[in-house]
Fold this sequence. Notes:
By secondary structure, this protein is mainly beta. 15% of the residues lie in helices and 50% in strands.
Amino acid sequence: MRRFILLTLLWLAGAHLAQAEQTRQVGHYTIHYMALPSTFLTPAIAHNYGIDRSPYTGFVNVVVQDNTRPGHPMVEASISGIATNILDARFKLKFREIREGHSIYYLAECPYRETEEIHFKLVIRKGDDLNSTLDFIQKFFND
């Protein structure tokens, strides 16, 4: 429960920080996604989630909600993706599923250097119900 509260605070703060959190409506699902520098996390939170807290590591957080069910619960999904920098160097994102109570979310780390714009291309699937590609760009800054 403590980690869920910490992640919720992170999520809210992340949405405020340069409007990092975004949403996309796909059918009856809402996909929430954000990418932030790992240094935004406290050392304890980074440790709890197994995230390398470094000025050269960012992380991506994805949540899928089912809008047809009461309370719009988070649901499990299959998420994969690629992060690409301006020099076209590609990094395969390895998403980990995190479950805490009724919460389900997915985290992946990605490297970056100095001030760098990273292009993300995610594939999000849930059975035959959801098969979507999500493209977005996030600019990362070093502390």
